[in-house]
Amino acid sequence: MKEQLEALQAEALQSIATTETIRDLQDIKVAYLGKKGSLTGVLRGMGKLSKEERPVVGEIANHVRTAITTALEEKTEKLEQAELEKQLEEETIDVTLPGRPVKVGGPHLLTSIVQEIEDLFIGMGYEVREGPEVETDYFNFEALNLPKNHPARDMQDSFYITNELLLRTHTSPVQARTMQEYNGEKPFKMICPGKVYRRDTDDATHSHQFTQIEGLYVDKNVRMSDLKGTLDKFAKKMFGEDREIRLRPSFFPFTEPSVEMDISCKVCDGKGCSVCKSTGWIEILGGGMVHPKVLEMGGYDPEVYSGFAFGMGPERIAMLKYGVNDIRHFYANDIRFLKQYHKA
C-alpha cells in the first residue's frame, strides 16, 4: 500500500504540474481527494492491514494528502495570477481619452420661473409663505370679501369636496391666513407660490390645474404708487430693462381700486403686431389696493393700515418670456421640450 500511495502522489503532482486551467484543477482535486477519489479508495484497504502497519500507512497517507493539497493551492494561485495579468493586459484603459459626458436633469421650466420670482421678491424683503391646497370655503372666499352666493364666485368654477371644503382656486387664502396669524399686530410682506385648481377646459391657454404666485404688502401709508413701483421692478427683472408697464382699471372683490397690468410687447417694441393683437401691450397680471373689508377680517384696522396685493401665473410669464405657445407643454413631460430650457 505504501507503494500505491507514493505512485498516487507522483501521478497527482504530475497532473497538477501540467494543468493549465483552474477548472481542470478542480477536477483533479475531486479525482484524488474527493469522497470517491483515488486516495480515498486506497485508504479503504487499511482495514486489511495489521495494527503495526496502520499507523505507518496513515502517516504516509496524510503526507500524500498534504502534498497534493499544497500543490493544488500553489498551482491555483499561479493560474489566477496569470488570468489577472491577461485580463489587465486585454482591458487596458487609456486614461488620456476624453470622458463620456453624463446626462443629468435640471429644474423644470416652471420651477426655474418660480425660483427666479421668489429670489426677486426675497431681495425686496418679502417672505415666502405656503398653505394647504385643500382649503375651506371661508379662507378661499369669505375672508377675501366673497360671501356665499356672491356673483364673482362664478368666475372661479371650483372643485368642491364638501359644502365647506374645496381645492383652492387661488393662493389668496394664504394671504388671509397670514393676516389672521399676525392679527393686526405688525406690518409684513409676503408672496405665496403654489398650485391652484379650477374647473376649466384644457386648451392651449387654459388648464384645470396651474400655478399662481400672489403677493401682499400690509403696512401704514401703503399707496398705489408703491404697487406700481414694485410691479415695474418685477417686469424689468423678468422681461428686460426696456420693458414698460401700464395699469388699467379692473375689478377684483378683494382689492379696491383694482388694476390689470400690461407690459409693452417685446416682439414689436410696443408698435403693434399679431402677438399683442396690434395694441403694443400684453396683459400679464392683476393687483390693487387691499379692500378694507379684507383687512378688517384679517384683524387689521383699515383706518390705520393699508396694503396692496397682486397675483400672477408663472405659466403665462414663462410663455411670454420664452415664446411657448401651449400651456400643455409644461405638463406633458416631453423631454424634447423640457431639455430646451435646461441650464447646465
Task: Describe this entry's structure for a reader.
Its EC number is 6.1.1.20. 26% of the residues are buried. The protein has two domains: 2-90; 109-341, BirA Bifunctional Protein, domain 2 (2-Layer Sandwich), CATH 3.30.930. The protein has 344 residues and is an alpha+beta fold. 40% of the residues lie in helices and 19% in strands. The strands form two sheets. It has a seven-stranded mixed sheet with strand order 1-5-6-10-9-8-7, sandwiched between helices. Strands 2-4-3 form a three-stranded antiparallel sheet. Helix 5 (109-123) packs across helix 10 (314-322). The radius of gyration is 41 Å and the shape is elongated. It contains eleven helices and ten strands.
Topology readout:
Blueprint: H1 2-18, H2 22-33, H3 38-43, H4 53-90, H5 109-123, E1 127-128, E2 134-136, H6 137-140, E3 159-160, E4 165-167, H7 172-182, E5 188-197, E6 209-219, H8 224-239, E7 245-252, E8 255-264, E9 281-290, H9 292-297, E10 306-312, H10 314-322, H11 335-338
Parallel strand pairs: 1-5
Antiparallel strand pairs: 2-4, 3-4, 5-6, 6-10, 7-8, 8-9, 9-10
Subcellular location: Cytoplasm
Subunit structure: Tetramer of two alpha and two beta subunits.
Protein name: Phenylalanine--tRNA ligase alpha subunit
